[in-house]
Design a protein that fits this description.
81% of the residues lie in helices and 0% in strands. It is mainly alpha-helical. The chain has one domain (24-185): Ferritin, core subunit, four-helix bundle (Ferritin), CATH 1.20.1260. α2 (25-53) packs antiparallel against α3 and α5 runs antiparallel to α6 (148-185). The longest helix has 38 residues, at 148-185. The radius of gyration is 19 Å and the shape is elongated. Bound molecules: fe (iii) ion (3 copies) and zinc ion.
Length: 186
């Protein structure tokens, strides 16, 4: 069989739902909340390692600040689970595990300094964008389900993730990428 045939049959394949699959929007919503709480808890552990490997003080400060913010987001999710009467047990988020792993290997592949800082910004922006996408969807689901109090808690987190993304973009454009480019010229 040609390689493309295998790829086609794979992409055309219908996915059979597991018996534990979410049967309604509410279940899907709870499932995705469990995913994001797992992701946030993983970040509480991963972000300090990124800060430790960064050089630029502003970048270190931005990441350290986001660790605190992330701890608050975990607490906010605990509140969400309580409001919904659901357990706050997380469910492995493959995407965040992958993003964190990528961040780790990109740090290993660079030397400490402006280039590694640029790599850290790159990895953390991918992380923030994943979170922005997740919380954007979660807010929409909460509103659709009439969970207004939950929706506003999730909206508060969404705003924090957007702010973190902006701060990272600023630190990248203000100095780090320029220093990294200068290093290339040397
Ligand atoms: Fe977060
Ligand atoms: Fe996920
Ligand atoms: Fe990738
Ligand atoms: Zn974040």
């Amino acid at each position: 069989m040609k390689k493309t045939d295998t790829q086609n049959s794979k992409s055309n394949r219908k996915v059979a739902a597991k018996s534990s699959a979410a049967s309604g929007l509410r279940e899907l919503f709870i499932d995705e909340l469990k995913d994001i709480v797992y992701a946030e808890r993983a970040l509480v552990k991963a972000l300090p390692k990124m800060a430790k490997n960064a050089t630029e003080p502003k970048l270190i400060a931005a990441i350290e600040e986001h660790v605190k913010v992330t701890e608050g987001q975990v607490q906010r999710l605990d509140q969400v689970f309580e409001l919904l009467g659901e357990s706050n047990r997380g469910k492995k988020c493959d995407a965040m595990e992958g993003l964190i792993k990528e961040g780790e290997s990109i740090m290993e592949e660079t030397e400490a300094g402006p280039v590694r800082d640029a790599a850290i910004i790159s990895a953390s922006q991918k992380i923030e964008h994943y979170e922005i996408a997740s919380y954007g969807t979660l807010v929409a689901f909460a509103k659709t389900l009439g969970e207004d109090e939950v929706a506003s808690l999730l909206e508060a987190t969404l705003a924090e993730e957007k702010e973190a993304d902006t701060l990272l973009t600023d630190s990248a454009y203000n100095s780090i990428n320029f220093e990294a480019a200068e290093e290339d010229e040397n």
